[in-house]
Specification:
single chain; 192 residues; mainly alpha; 8 helices
């Protein structure tokens, strides 16, 4: 195992403070805060990278359809949360998304693109809802949502790019290991 991967795993293991992006605190207004919010918690980062990695494994139409579905469903989930509608088991849904997506990557599990879109869409509603409930009713949600969606797309693209780079350099096994590490991180976050 290379030193970079070991360092990343150690960071994940010793990062319980960063475990949840959905703390209910912090700034949740404006474009700048929307940009910063997705990278403020390891759970969101892991799920976004996983969506990109899995899309790269699925290939074809999934390159754009799976991440796009996630972003649209996340915005919808954010609107649900902002409107005050409570979605039960939100944090658990987020943790399940990390575990399941990590396992899909580790096992190179293939679903049709449409079924994959439904799966990530469901996960995205939980992610969006968690962030939507944090937005104060007195602020405009549009700038925050725009920043949040933009950075989410960038993280998806990073995951896709990483997956494609690993395929082109015959390091597909590394992507599977990353999937396993993401799944294990989901378990760790659930029990920490």
């Amino acid at each position: 195992m290379n030193k970079t991967l070991k360092a990343g795993l150690v960071l994940l293991i010793f990062s319980p403070v960063m475990a949840f992006a959905h703390t209910g605190g912090g700034q949740t207004s404006g474009f700048q805060h929307g940009i910063l919010h997705p990278i403020s918690g390891i759970d969101h980062l892991l799920a976004m990278i996983a969506v990109g990695l899995w899309a790269s494994q699925l290939g074809g139409r999934a390159y754009w359809a799976v991440p796009s579905t996630f972003v649209v469903a996340m915005i919808l989930g954010g609107m649900i949360g902002f409107s005050g509608v409570f979605i039960p088991f939100t944090e658990e849904g987020i943790l399940v998304s990390i575990l399941v997506l990590g396992l899909f990557i580790a096992t190179t599990f293939k679903l049709s693109t449409n079924t994959s879109m439904v799966a990530v869409g469901l996960f995205a509603v939980f992610h969006g809802s968690a962030h939507g409930v944090e937005i104060e009713p007195s602020v405009s949600t549009l700038p925050f949502t725009a920043g949040f969606a933009l950075v989410t797309m960038v993280i998806h693209l990073f995951g896709i790019g990483l997956g494609l780079a690993m395929q082109r350099t015959n390091l597909v096994l590394f992507v599977r290991w990353l999937g396993g590490a993401i799944a294990l991180s989901g378990i760790y976050l659930a029990v920490s």
